[in-house]
User: Fold this.
Amino acid sequence: MNKYTVIRDTREQTGWIFKSTQHCEGTEVAGLKTGDYTIKGCEDILCVERKGSIAEFANNLVKDWDRFCRELDRMESYTYSFIVLEFSMADLIDYPRSADLPQKIKKKIVVTGSLLLKRLIEIQTKYHTKILFCGDRGQDVVTAIFKNVQQINTAAK
Assistant:
C-alpha cells in the first residue's frame, strides 16, 4: 500500500503534525483553498476542517456564520468532507458553561447551546459534510479517514 502525505494548511496555527508511520510519510505545510487538512494527491476530493474548541466552533456558528457557510458551500465540491470537532456534544449543548473561557467573559455571552444545536442541525440538513464529535481523539479519527481515503483512491487508479 502506498503511503500518504498529509498537507496541513498554512493558516492552521496550532494544528496537528502527522509523523511518519507505516501508512504516513509525515506532514507538509501548504496553502489549501478549503479546510485545514488533506492528503497529497487527494486535494480535490478530500477536505478536513478542524475545530479545536467549542468556543471556536460557537464563533463560527454565530459571529462568522456567513463566512462559515461560504466554506461549507466550497466543501460541497469534495467527495469526502469532514468537520472534526475536538469536544463533545455535551460541550455544545452546555455552551457557554462548557467553554474554556474566563468567567467574566462567559457571563457576557448571550449565545446558548440551543442556538448552536439549531445551527448544527441546519448544517447537517443542508450539506453533505460529515460532522464528527471526537473529543481529544480528533487526530486519531482523521488518521483513520486518511487511511481509508488513500485506500479507496489507490484502488480506483
Summary: Residues 4-156 form a domain with the Rossmann fold fold (CATH 3.40.50.10130). DSSP finds six helices and six strands in the chain. The chain has one domain: 4-156. The longest helix spans residues 138-156.
